[in-house]
Backbone:
């Protein structure tokens, strides 16, 4: 899918931040992936592995933190964890009135090596 | 190269313009094994030697955690915001047309150009993996067209639109249609700076599409249900489709039409003009 272009963005971003922080190398990158973000974590990991050769992320390990969305049902005043976008309220089985989170796709942090 | 869908990197992207060709200078794709799975069975053979081949260097360096919390699509979103400002400044109504391949986007656009070309200046950005076929069709229909070939890429991004705009230089008060790459997955994530996103579905597709591709339905404003002339011949349950789509996006509008017979096309033209009014009154 589009995970290749996203991996390319991550490498650009890491390169920029690593230079800014005078990093010799990056040993770990932590990325949050929400389960409704449209990003397939496995495909993204594969794409990053391929594209990172020769880049600042070449030897970095990838730490993916998966974020689950939370549904809010106004009728039941209930907040519940959603594994899929079409999950319904466990009480009344209607679709959530509001969805919090689950769309995250961001670089949380870099673990860098400095001289 | 992504073997699942053939999505590739940007150096394959070509923007076809009589004047010159545009290349991005991203890295080439090389296969590189990157495996950090430590699934050893430590119970059975405690004495054995693990040889990890991680080329980590830990000599005399200091580790530091750099907190970022940066949205990975921030770069695309920023360019999209600049495109949007350009459209607002020049008063160009931009509609991003998305769909599965074969839903009839190009035919809808051809008919739309025939209908509106007398009263409006129309510009089309065509996104396809290969060929100039769609841009040729659009130019024949009477609009200015620019073809972006994404190579093996599966979507258009805001940067490609920015480059295309520099070449197209659309006139003030024109309508710009972006025909995205036929794909219900990837283009959903990439804001191009459009005023509205128009999703085209045809009745030869299943009524469960909204549940299978919720992100695309969620991010669209209008859903055109095309090929209505085929309704008597297919099992498409319109009520079920609209019910599913409304579950994903309660604000989604619907227009049923047939680009082939012209049935319902008036509703689409009216919708475009009503959007132009809303856009220009901002």
Residues:
């Amino acid at each position: 899918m589009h995970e290749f272009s996203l991996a390319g963005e991550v490498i650009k971003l890491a390169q920029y931040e690593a230079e800014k922080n005078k990093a010799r190398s990056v040993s770990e990158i932590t990325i949050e992936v929400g389960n409704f973000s449209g990003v397939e974590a496995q495909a993204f990991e594969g794409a990053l592995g391929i594209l990172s050769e020769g880049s600042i992320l070449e030897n970095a390990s990838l730490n993916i933190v998966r974020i689950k969305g939370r549904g809010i049902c106004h009728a039941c005043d209930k907040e519940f964890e959603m594994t899929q976008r079409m999950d319904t309220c466990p009480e009344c089985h209607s679709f959530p009135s509001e969805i919090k989170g689950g769309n995250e796709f961001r670089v949380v942090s870099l673990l860098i090596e400095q001289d | 190269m992504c073997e699942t869908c053939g999505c590739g990197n940007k150096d394959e992207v070509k923007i076809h313009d009589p004047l010159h060709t545009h290349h991005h200078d991203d890295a080439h794709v090389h296969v590189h094994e990157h495996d950090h799975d430590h699934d050893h069975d430590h119970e059975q053979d405690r004495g054995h030697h693990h040889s990890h081949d991680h080329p980590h260097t830990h000599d005399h360096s200091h580790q530091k955690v750099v907190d970022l919390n940066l949205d990975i699509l921030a770069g695309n979103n920023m360019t999209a915001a600049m495109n949007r400002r350009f459209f607002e400044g020049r008063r160009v109504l931009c509609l991003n047309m998305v769909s599965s391949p074969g839903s009839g986007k190009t035919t809808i656009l051809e008919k739309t150009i025939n209908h509106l070309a007398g009263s409006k200046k129309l510009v089309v950005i065509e996104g396809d993996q290969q060929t100039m076929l769609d841009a040729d069709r659009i130019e024949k229909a009477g609009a200015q067209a620019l073809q972006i070939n994404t190579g093996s890429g599966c979507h258009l991004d805001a940067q490609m639109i920015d480059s295309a705009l520099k070449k197209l230089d659309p006139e003030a008060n024109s309508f710009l249609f972006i025909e995205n790459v036929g794909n219900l997955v990837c283009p959903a994530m990439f804001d191009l700076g459009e005023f509205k996103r128009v999703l085209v579905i045809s009745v030869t597709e299943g009524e469960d599409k909204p549940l299978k591709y919720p992100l695309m339905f969620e991010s669209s404003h209008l859903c055109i249900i095309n090929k209505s002339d085929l309704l008597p011949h297919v099992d498409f349950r319109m009520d079920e489709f609209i019910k599913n789509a409304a579950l994903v996006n309660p604000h989604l509008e619907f227009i049923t039409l047939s680009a082939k017979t012209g049935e319902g096309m008036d509703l689409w033209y009216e919708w475009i003009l009503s959007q132009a009014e809303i856009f220009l009154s901002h």
